Known about the structure:
globular
Amino acid sequence: MTRLTxxxxxxxxxxxxxxxxxxxxxxxxxxxxLGRKIRTEWELQTNQEGIAKIPPIPQGTIxxxxxxxxxxxxxxxxxVDEENKTLEITLNAPQPQYTAH
Length: 101
């Protein structure tokens, strides 16, 4: 099991608070523990310091998605194989909108 901490910042290094963080366990070690299924998906929000703490999760591959107002949506897979892991994620500003008309 791994204790995961996700730190979300802007390009300027400012913490992004109230960002929606979705963590999904994709594959890895056994999902069965003592005969019952353990949770494989979490939805949280970052605090004022831009940090979200995930309860202990199985080790393996996880998908992290972050959605925050005024930033591009972030999505990436990570391999988690330590007891404690911190993911530092930097969000980009939105792209300018284009029109075809």
